[in-house]
């Protein structure tokens, strides 16, 4: 028996969209604008392209759209080097395009979340250019981390910190001082001890809230505040292996929480029971101001540390990177699910679940490879196995209590493109020779919409990264209406998740007895069974099958569940 059909996926209802706590059980879809849809044929995706595809996202059944950065930027790190936080880069359009996108999304009952990059700016930001012009000792330099070097003539960096992209986290300028950049040299870190930095970002928040956005995903939310005195780390110089495992003097410092408490006060002006300020572009939309949210990208050593970011007076959600990094293994998955739910309960925040994003190898490829290779993988592996596991992992994720994040193209079952020629790569980490592997381009290849065309419907002028020929058969056109396709699986899963009373928000699961390698849990009248083992297992049937990620066999009150397959039942 193939996957069960439930009902045609209804669009997010107006009532759901209006709820101030919509984010507790939302499905949020990440759009990487340069790779989603190209409206003007220049090979690069843009805001008008995103706008044109909003009906697709409504019909897919998601609740909100998170847009990766589209601000004015030299693009040294794909837009995460921002030169002007109140302008749209011409590559993506202009502010009128952003306003039109927000308006159309509201009409379709979709919410818009935008990226915010507060840890660092571009070296082309007016503040940084002014700091270089005015020289050592100037007030402008206090807005960043400028320091004299060590050594007889200041020829050595001020401390031993390493960049996430490899090499020293310091660059020396012509007058002899050094500036801190935890990422690329083109991304100088702000000094959040300076009051002007906080004032500026509170103003930026209001600018976009008045434009009508529904929230912010905070890039490097665990950064910003550095340990007093910028102390050396010491050790063997291999700091990158410590990231995400140890508390570092430049990440996850307690001081960041003071910033977020201030920000939350601003967001609460635009949220909750009292009607907050509205910008001109929000007039006449029929959309309440409640329910604006913050989402933290916080890489922390433990889920308990992550929970600190979502205390009641701080942020609303934090990405669950511990879950993203967990292998397809029942025992390990159960551990991280339990720890996540236990950590979120005391702070009253919903758990979040995510399998892919713009910085890691797509999970259809990660699961195609042997365990233990991490989240950036250079080999294709067994693609059939990877897709089977990816589909099963998706149903497991969507069955868990809380909010789920989906990265563009995963609903098509797209694998990573692991064989891009060196000459087309654009990930800045790739060119630094150290640090991150620099193979993030593989998950950023523009997605296919049609079976034919120079870019499979992405745009009329090709695509900024080459797409594999086999993506024609993975396109939206090729999968739409095809029973058993990954796209239709996602549509049905979102529809069931939205309408079943025991799915979505919640804070616990009831684990059921299951064979080794199998996860089984109940949520009210809903039951999920996920077989992560390498062989078929037989389990009791739990009522009426709602959906399966692969074919199953039912007989005499039992169900044979193949390897790498997830099944949803309702006992009602």
Shape: globular
Cα Rg = 24 Å
Number of strands: 21
Relative strand content: 5-15%
Contiguous low-pLDDT stretches (5 residues minimum) are: 1-10, 273-289
Q: State the oligomer.
A: single chain
| Integer average pLDDT | 91
The main pleated sheet reads as: 8 strands, parallel
**Protein structure class:** alpha/beta
How much helical structure, as a percent, in the residues?
A: 10-25%
- The N- and C-terminal alpha carbons lie at a distance of 21 Å
**Number of helix segments?**
14
Describe the structure.
The chain is of the alpha/beta class and 572 residues long. Helix content is 23%, strand content 15%. It is built from 14 helices and 21 strands. The chain has helices at 14-18, 47-52, 54-60, 95-107, 126-134, 195-211, 256-269, 303-307, 321-324, 330-344, 363-366, 383-399, 476-479, 486-499; strands spanning 27-31, 64-67, 71-72, 84-88, 111-116, 146-147, 170-172, 178-180, 215-218, 293-296, 317-318, 352-354, 403-407, 510-511, 518-523, 526-531, 537-540, 544-548, 553-555, 558-561, 565-570. It has an eight-stranded parallel sheet with strand order 11-10-9-5-2-1-13-12. A hairpin with a 2-residue loop joins strand 19 and strand 20 (558-561). Helix 6 (195-211) runs parallel beside helix 7. The radius of gyration is 24 Å and the shape is globular. The two termini are 21 Å apart. Residues 1-10 and 273-289 have low confidence and may be disordered.
């Amino acid at each position: 028996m193939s996957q069960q059909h439930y009902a045609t996926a209804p669009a997010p209802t107006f009532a759901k969209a209006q709820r101030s706590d919509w984010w507790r059980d939302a499905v949020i879809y990440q759009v990487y604008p340069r790779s989603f849809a190209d409206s003007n044929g220049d090979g690069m995706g843009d805001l008008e392209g995103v706008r044109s595809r909003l009906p697709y996202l409504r019909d897919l059944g998601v609740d909100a759209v998170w847009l990766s950065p589209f601000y004015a930027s030299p693009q040294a790190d794909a837009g995460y080097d921002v030169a002007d936080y109140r302008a749209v880069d011409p590559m993506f359009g202009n502010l009128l395009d952003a306003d039109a996108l927000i308006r159309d999304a509201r009409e379709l009952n979709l919410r818009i979340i935008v990226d915010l990059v507060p840890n660092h700016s571009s070296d082309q930001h007016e503040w940084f250019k002014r700091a270089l012009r005015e020289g050592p000792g100037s007030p402008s330099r206090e807005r960043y981390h400028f320091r004299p070097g060590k050594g007889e003539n200041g020829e050595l960096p001020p401390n031993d910190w390493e960049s996430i992209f490899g090499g020293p986290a310091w660059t020396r300028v012509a007058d002899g001082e050094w500036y801190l950049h935890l990422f690329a040299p083109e991304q100088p870190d702000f000094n959040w001890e300076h009051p002007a930095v906080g004032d500026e970002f509170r103003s930026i928040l209001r600018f976009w809230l008045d434009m009508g956005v529904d929230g912010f995903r905070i890039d490097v939310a665990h950064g910003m505040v550095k340990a007093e005195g910028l102390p050396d780390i010491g050790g063997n110089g291999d700091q990158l292996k410590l990231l995400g495992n140890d508390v570092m003097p430049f990440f996850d410092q307690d001081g960041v929480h003071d910033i977020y408490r201030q920000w939350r006060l601003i967001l609460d002006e635009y949220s909750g029971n009292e009607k907050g300020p509205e910008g001109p572009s929000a007039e006449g939309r029929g959309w309440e101001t409640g329910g604006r949210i913050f989402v933290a990208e916080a890489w922390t050593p433990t889920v308990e540390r992550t929970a600190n970011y979502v205390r009641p007076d701080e942020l609303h959600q934090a990405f669950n990177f511990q879950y993203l990094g967990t292998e397809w293994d029942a025992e390990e998955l159960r551990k991280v699910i339990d720890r996540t739910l236990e950590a979120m309960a005391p702070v009253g925040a919903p758990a979040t679940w995510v399998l892919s994003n713009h910085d890691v190898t797509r999970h259809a490829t990660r699961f195609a490879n042997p365990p233990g290779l991490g989240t950036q993988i250079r080999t294709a592996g067994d693609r059939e196995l990877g897709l089977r596991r990816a589909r099963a992992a998706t149903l497991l994720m969507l069955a868990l209590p809380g909010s789920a994040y989906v990265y563009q193209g995963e609903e098509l079952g797209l694998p990573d493109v692991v064989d891009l020629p060196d000459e087309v790569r654009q990930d800045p980490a790739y060119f630094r020779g150290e640090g991150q592997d620099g193979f993030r381009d593989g998950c950023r290849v523009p997605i296919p919409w049609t079976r034919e065309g120079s870019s499979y419907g992405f745009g009329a002028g090709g695509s900024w990264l080459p797409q594999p020929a086999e993506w024609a058969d993975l396109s939206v056109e090729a999968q739409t209406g095809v029973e058993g396709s990954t796209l239709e699986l996602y549509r049905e899963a979102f529809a069931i998740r939205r309408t079943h009373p025991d799915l979505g928000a919640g804070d616990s699961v009831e684990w059921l007895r299951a064979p080794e390698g199998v996860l089984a849990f109940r949520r009210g009248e809903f039951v999920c069974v996920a077989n992560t083992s390498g062989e078929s297992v037989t389990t009791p049937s739990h009522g009426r099958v709602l959906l399966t990620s692969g074919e199953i066999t039912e007989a005499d009150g039992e169900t044979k569940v193949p390897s790498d397959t997830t099944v949803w039942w309702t006992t009602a």
